[in-house]
Design brief:
This is C1q domain-containing protein. The chain is of the alpha+beta class and 230 residues long. The chain contains 2 helices and 14 strands; from the N terminus they run H-E-E-E-H-E-E-E-E-E-E-E-E-E-E-E.
Length: 230
């Protein structure tokens, strides 16, 4: 279809030449298929017939040909991308098991701390910048992750201590203190665990001492989790 349209629009014969000279030996003079020797390089002569010393030559406008070819290539690329993007999106959805509003949605979240702050005794750390919150499982108001499904979850947190100071933070599940993340003098403490939880269990990061300590923000302290399997 595209080829037919190009032939119809572009390959219009503008000049037909007859009897364009003879050689002394009554043999025809052959020209290359594409002769771009015109001064403006915008047209091409193509020999169509050379019989009985009566050459038939067509002059094609290559400027229009180039324009249409560029437009056809651009449209082909756009059509291909428009076809591929939904497939890529669906492949990602199938891989992570997430589709808004459906039961196959897989809980997952990532949040970080925007500003450096002082942590009071046993204060829950609220990571206020939410980057991902599939299923609305994390509260940026309370800093608590509430599990919507029973299963195995991957949970991780990284906390950075302030200059010349210590930082003690613990990962908690419900009312149970779990592992410790410790930092000292602009260093980080990181925790990565896999835990079995029940529906509506809560997981959060809590300051671990009775004295005040500082935690560095600027997205250097983070909290995240996702369902591995039910």
């Amino acid at each position: 279809m595209v080829l037919r349209r190009i032939l119809y629009l572009l390959f219009v014969i503008t000049i037909m030449k007859y009897g364009k000279g003879q050689n002394s030996d009554n043999s025809s003079t052959e020209k290359p298929l594409l002769d771009n020797q015109n001064s403006d390089n915008s047209s091409t002569e193509i020999p169509l017939l050379d019989n009985q010393n009566m050459p038939l030559v067509a002059l094609f406008d290559t400027t229009k040909l180039n324009e249409v070819l560029r437009a056809a290539i651009k449209k082909t690329v756009e059509d291909t991308m428009n076809e591929m993007i939904p497939r890529i999106k669906q492949a990602v959805i199938d891989d992570i098991g997430y589709e808004p509003g459906r039961k196959k949605e897989r809980p997952a979240f990532t949040a970080s701390l925007t500003s450096t702050k002082n942590l009071a005794s046993n204060e829950v750390v609220i990571f206020d910048k939410v980057w991902l919150n599939m299923g609305g499982v994390y509260s940026q108001d309370t800093g608590v992750f509430t599990t919507p499904k029973t299963g195995l979850y991957s949970i991780s947190t990284t906390v950075m201590s302030y200059h010349n100071s210590y930082l003690h933070c613990n990962l908690w599940k419900n009312n149970e203190k779990m592992v410790l993340a410790f930092g000292n003098d602009v260093s980080t403490g990181t925790v990565n665990v896999v835990m079995a939880v029940k529906m509506n269990d809560t997981v959060y990061v809590k300051h671990g001492t009775t004295s005040e300590e500082q935690i560095v923000g600027e997205h250097r302290s983070t909290f995240s989790g996702y369902l591995i399997t039910e």
